[in-house]
Structures are given as structure tokens and as C-alpha cells.
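Inputs:
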Amino acid sequence: MTYIAKPKFHHPGLKKNELGYTHRDYEGKISTLCAGCGHDSITASIIEACYELSIEPHRVAKISGIGCSSKTPDYFLGNSHGFNSVHGRMPSVLTGANLANRDLIYLGVSGDGDSASIGFGQFAHSIRRAVNMTYIVENNGVYGLTKGQFSATADRGSKSKKGVTNTDNAIDLVAIALQLGATFVARSFSGDKTQLVPLIAAAIRHKGASFIDVISPCIAFNNHAGSTKSFDYVREHNDAVNRLDVLVGREPISVDYAPGTVQVVEQHDGSRLALRKLDADYDPHDRLGAQTFLQKHAAKGQIVTGLLYVDPDAEDLHTHLDTVETPLNTMDEQALCPGSAVLDKINASLR
Amino acid sequence: MKPTDISAPDYFHKVVDCQWACPAHTPVPEYIRLIAEGRYSDAYMINWKSNVFPGILGRTCDRPCEPACRRGRVEDNPVAICRLKRVAADFKDDIKDRLPKPGPKNGKRIALVGGGPASLAVARDLAPLGYHCTVFDGDPKAGGMMRSQIPKFRLPDSVIDEETDYILDLGVEFKGGQRVDSLKQLLAENYDAVFVGSGAPRGRELDIPGRKEAAANIHIGIDWLANVSFGHVDKIGRRVIVLGGGNTAMDCCRTARRLGGEAVKVVVRSGFEEMKASPWEKEDAIHEDIPILNYMVPVAFKHVAGKLIGVIFQKVRAEYDAKGRRNLVPSGEPDETIPCDDVLVAVGQENAFPWIEADCGIEFDKWHMPKVDPKTFVSTNPKVFFGGDAAFGPKNIIWAVAHGHDAALSIHRMLSGEDINERPLPEVHVSSQKMGIHEWSYDNDISADKRFKVPHRDKVVALKDIRAEVELGYDLKLALGEAQRCLNCDVQTVFAAPLCIECDACVDICPMDCISFTENGEEDDLRQRLKAPSPHHDQALYVSGDLKTGRVMVKDEDVCLHCGLCAERCPTGAWDMQKYLIDMVQAGSTCQSKARSAA
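Outputs:
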């Protein structure tokens, strides 16, 4: 952390988005994480994605659990709604909030401890229920706040800072998310913003459960030789299957890739994803294929990154439950609490 | 681009925009920090070494540093560098015991023509080395135009006395009231070197009809100011027109307001924006109820029976040709006559060397200026040096001082048997400011304050007394606030590529988006690919060597706040904040540089 606040001055030539905001307007408080933490780069990527999408900050709810990663919502979107909940309980709190007010954009920010250990069940259920959210796991493979014990996502055979080898199998959250029916699944790396920022933007525009696993080196406890989540290791073993551009509005796609290598995916809200294939065999619409691909590459020690699966026609929890279109907070008391006569009627229908 | 060579003394010097812009290269951020610490005497001595006249310049400098100030690119206004200099002078203790002592005489004699800032700067540098310096001036006291032309309400005599005395007390011989009328005679007195710092003493004439007939009420600005200064003139007519748009015109009109001029107008040929006067001097004039009328060219003085009654002006407008050059063309409107009792002509100054005989070995160019080497200040006579306005025409005090330093170095080298064309390199100190994990030995918390205004004396009181100084100077509270606005541009961001792990922490924290990690390329191409626009190509790009991913770090120095957050956020210490001090070479530098590092 730093002792001084980040100066309010910004570059006089900063571009403004459609709302007249610069990317600085999407910042939060100054980070108190360790210098060089990968999480801060994810924070910067979220800021960049929201700036590029011209999102009104008051339309965003950022919800987190406990841990280094769960502190980060304090560092971005200082003018948004935020809820720093209980350890591992972000998914339920987010689900509840989403059911009450479906008009907000939900950003769930969690870590590997928060989502793969104490909140593993919560994570699983929010995904399988198809809550309309962007679920970001800032995955560093260690418990940073308690001095670097292996987390559930640490690879078997990887070494701790003190040289101890991890003997447990790792949970691959991407594989689980795919298996549980997430309709937007991606993996990225905090040290590669050109890949990460469009993924976050696309996930925000996706209607349904979007899950992004972001490998984020822990500078203090997991950035050494023998770690599989260090800057050097991830850069060496990164196998990006595609590159993404998010296109919002009607501007023509003018991507200078060789013909046939760009695939355009149109999402529900009209936003389009221009996917540049890096791996000719990879098909991001094939859930089963994706799972096999991931496992094969993981066995070879490779880290597959990119947009791994997307279902542009996804539905969300509200569609499944056939809930009312109006957020609950804009309904009057009469509508929310229609009285015992209505209750009797419902009860009668169930007898 | 090739990796930036930060060991080249000029690289970081340019980043300290104010110091680079100052002709005498005063270490501005260094003395501003000392002011913030309350170390006014130390701040004064740093100034004194570089620019010789901190108290005088703190009131009158043309401030080339301020338009250059980085703060002016970050927000609306630069740091009030000039007025902080005055703070150092106003609040210092007695510093006499810190001044150099007259050195043991080395037997060499230097004649200095003119007692203004250029000559005094030469004497200041040479006297402590043992040279016998003799300064000749037509006026009874030292100071030259600083004393004769700058009105007392801007620069009190006491300040001039103090700072000229510091120099004369070094054992400099001052021959007041002795105007040099013949260089030939002076050379015949066998001085080892002669320095000409006689200024640009002649006010330009305005030869239009009526000039001779109405001469009694038409005055040449600088002569009139000198007469006011020495008490020969103490009143002027009620309605006064000042012709000209430079700082002398501003001094003339404000002086006229204090000598009975109730309706004083400044009339300029050009547009208001293009006037040569400094913006703050124009503001001060307007504040004293002096209108500035523009695009009016004087065509004739109107007079009746030998008495001036007005000036006739032709109205013009600006037209720009294909090359962007401005021409003033008649606008077609009828001429305007402005009635007046007196006219002050301040349309420029000229050099005049009637006292330099043709056979003195001094060649002149087609503009009747002496041929002077711009680096060594030597004329075509190897023993005669020029500096200040006498060398390259009218500039201002700080340039005269800078010339003086360079000429003194030349004289010292010549008389030490060294080649004057060889200039020793400046001494540079670079040292880390890191005190702890998040602690620096400078205050890196950036102040968001706007520029503080310097308090002025009440206008009614000020206009009644020609010797009452208008600007009162910052008090200590204001001075501290203003000092905190300085961005410490001399505390440099230094990058060590081998330590960088490309974690992006510096990129993410930088409030000004100065830092980018990208593929290398040619400069024009790189400037297109930075995180923020890069409009000022005169501001350097700091480019690292190749990093692990094959990319390079590129930092646009343009609007860096020197807040040090990149270094605080860097997990490996690849960034460090290092203070850069450059010790410009002056005559006898090697022994003097020690004196400053102690400050």
C-alpha cells in the first residue's frame, strides 16, 4: 500500500467515453494490497472494461466475499453499489440481490479460497442456477492473507515459497463452471490486459452466468520458481485459443485478420464478439469439446486462456423462474404485499 | 528507439523544465523544497550562486521558468517560481558570512564597462578567484538598468543596494560617474581582459510628423524612467499616452500614474495578445486603471503653437499570409485622435557603441552589433568580451547573468592559459530518495491547490507614493502553500529494466498514464501507441532496454507528477526516485561546487 492518496490530477488529454467520463472516473480508493499484486491489474482491467462500455457506475453492484481478492471492489467503481459479504457467501448474496433488482449489473469478485474452498458449494449453485452476473475469480493458488498456504486451485506438484510440494489435486474452476452449465466461460491472466479487458467487457454484456478465472500471481507468496501461478510460468505456458474484440453499437467490424479466422458472435443485447482464432481446432460453442481440450492441455502443463465457451442465446434465472420484469424496489407496497386474500388464493391453488 | 541514456547530463536536466528554461539554470525545485522546510537562507544561497540577484530577480525576472513549468501542463497555472525566489530573499537571515571572501590577488586586472547585471555577474565570479575587477559606470551607483529603469515601486533601492554590495564587497572596485568614452583608452591601460556589459542604452525614436515641433512633451521612455529614478523628473501631464507594448511601456504608464497622470493610456500597434510585455505586467497596468488600446499605429503628433495636444492613430487589423506571417493593414476606419498632454515613447531599445573606435580590433555585423561568440562571449578582439544586452541586444536580467557566468569562465580560462572553447562538463549528482518502504526524503503528496496570489498594496495608497512597493510578497503561510505546488521534477523516475517483472503495477497506479509497456518502434510510431496521448514532442520519451517479454517500458516525461507512486508500487525496486542535481560550470567551479552541496 501507499501512504499518499492517488493524486486527483489526470492526463489532460485523456479520452472520454459516451458518458463524458475518463477511465479515472471509474477508480475507487487506492489499493492496500502488496505492491505488484496481480489483483491490482484485474482491478485496472475492470475499470477499463466499464469505461469502454460507458457503464453508468450507479448501475453496477459489486459483491465480494473475504480475502485479498474480495478487498478489490473497494479499489474500482467508487460510485457503484458494493457489498463485502461473508467468506464464500458472495454467490448467495449476489443471487438475492439479483432477484430483488434485476436491472443492475452484477459483478461478483472472489478468490480461489473464497470460491474453491469455503464457498465451493455457493459458487456451484450460483452457476447452475444461471444467475445473470459476471463472476470473476482472482486466482493466485495460495492463501495470501494467511501467508501463502496452498489453496484448492494450487496445481499438484507445484512448490510453495518454502519449497514444499503440493500433493493434493487441484480444482479447475473453469472445468467445473463448464460442467455446471455456465454460458460464458473464460480464463485469462492478470499480466495480459489486452486479453483480459475484452473478456470482462464481453462477460458483462452476456446475459446469463459468466465466469472468468483470472490467474493472478501473488507477488508475496507465489511468484517463485516451482510455482505454476507465477508471472514467468504463466507467460511460458500460456496457450491462448483466441483473441477477442467486443463491438458495441453499429460500427463495422474492420479487423484485419486473414479471412475465415474471425468469427463474429452476436449476443442477446446486440453486442458482437469478434473472435480471432489462434487455435484452428478450437470451437468456443462446443461445451464438451472445450472440456476435453482443457483436460488434454492441462495434462501437458499448459494453461488454456481465452474465451473458452459462449452460448449467445443463454437464458438466466429470471427467465427460468418467470419473475416479474420490474425490480422489486420500484414496486409499491400493494404489489409487493397484496394481502391475505391473494395468499389464500395461492394456497388454494396448491391444495 | 534506443534505450535512453540517462547518464547524459542533459537528459534529466531537460525533465526539470524550469531549470532547463532558466538561462542561469537555477536549481528551482531544490530551493523551493528548502523554502518549504523554512530554510530560507539556504534557498537564497542556491539562488545567489546561480543567478546572483535573487532579491532583484524575485521581483523583476522575466521568468522563462514559469511558462516551462510542468505544473502549467498539469493544471491551469505554473508554480509562482519567481515570487518564491523573493520569499527566500525576504525571509533569509544575514548571509554575509556565507559569501565568498575576496581571494588573494592573482595580479590580473579586469575592466568591466557598465555596472549592470552582466558586469556584476562577471565580477562576482572572478573577484573571489583573486582577479582585480574594476567596474565603470556613468551612474553614481551600481546596478545599471536595474536601478535606472525599473521603477522603485517594483524594485526598491534597498534591494538593489544589498545585492550589488554583496558583489562590491568582494573587493570589486566600482568607479561610479565614470562613463567609458573610449575603448581605445581603456585598452591602453593594459587590463588583462575587458568585459563590455554596457547594455542597450538608447531608446528607439519614433520619427513621425510633429515629433520635433512637440518635442517638449514627447519623452523617450527609458531616459524618462531614468530621470524619474534619479529624481530629475517628478511630474507629468494629466493625460498621458504611452506608445509601445513592452515591459518598458508598462513601467512608463504605471510611473506616469504616480506622477500626476490621471488618464494614462497605452496604445500599441499590434494586438493585445501579441504585446511583448509579460502578461502579469499587463495585468498590473490594467489593475491601475490604464487601458491598453490595440491595433492603432501612431501616424502624427498633433500640436498647436509648439504644444502637444494629441496623437493621431491609424486603425489597422492583422492579416496573415500563407507563411503565417502577420501584416498590419489599414482597416479602413477613420483615423482617431487621442488628446493628451504628454507622450512616452517606449517602442524599443537599441545598442549604441559610439565609444568603440574602429581600430580596437572589434568587428561589427551589418546590424551594427559586435561579432560575439555565443558560447564564449569573446569578441573579435581576444581580450574583449561582451555580455548582457550589449552582446545580443535587449533581453533581460537573467540572460545578462547567464552571459556573465559564461564570459567569466572564458576570462578565467584565458588567463589561466587554457582554451576558452573547451568548456568543462557540469558535475551531476544523482541519489536515491528512498527512506523506507513508502517513505521518501521529499514530500511526494501532490498538492491540489491553485496558484496563490501575491498580496498587493492597496491601490489608492500605492498610486500616491512612487516609492511604495506594490507587491508585498508572499507571507510564510502563502509561501508554504505555493512551495507545496512544486512537483519536484528534479526527483527523477529511474527505471532498471533487469529488475522488472512486468507486473503492470506502475502502469495501473500512475495517475497521469505516463507509463506504457509495449513493443519497441520508432519514436513517432511509439508516441501513437502510448497509454495516453503524447502531444508534446519536445518532451522526451524514456525508453528501457528489452524486457523478458520482448517489450520495452516507455515513459512519456511530459506530465509526470514525480509522485513516486510507480516506485512505491513496484515490487522489485525496478523504479526508484532519484534526486538529480546539476552543478553548472562557473569560473573556479571545482572549489565552489563543494559550497553548494553543503547547502
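Remarks. DSSP finds twelve helices and 13 strands in chain A. Residues 252-256 of chain A have pLDDT under 50 and may be disordered.
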